[in-house]
Amino acid sequence: xxLELVRKELIYKNEHTKDSPFAAFRFLLKxxxxxxxxxxxxxxxxxxxxxxxxxxxxxxxxxxxxxLFIIMVISLISATVRSRIAIFSKKDARITLTLPIPIETLIxxxxxxxxxxxxxxxxxxxxxxxxxxxxxx
Length: 137
Prior knowledge:
This protein has 137 residues and is mainly alpha-helical. It is 88% helix and 0% strand. The protein has five helices and no strands. The longest helix is centred in the N-terminal third of the chain and has 33 residues, at 23-55. It is elongated, with a radius of gyration of 19 Å. The termini are far apart.
């Protein structure tokens, strides 16, 4: 039951975009933006890491940890906003509250959905940092 609700949540959140005539354009634009973000994070981190490594080799690792910490704080704020939207959506409540589903199951499925989305977002944001740090060694 929980997996079906998570699947419904993933489909429901993306349902409004696939019928649009500009859906392919939006998807392509999203890929370009993610690619530019990836390249920008890589460029900034790699250049700062080289400058910091020239002063002290141990400071480079601390710099990576600081960047990852900042990403996690931003992710926490994002997850808080995303959870408020996911749990208290009026449109979703009209559909799911009329079904014979326990409220606990509904909340757990939404928490799993938010967790999956945040893991994907953290992976996208952390990957260029970790790759730049690894390639500079």
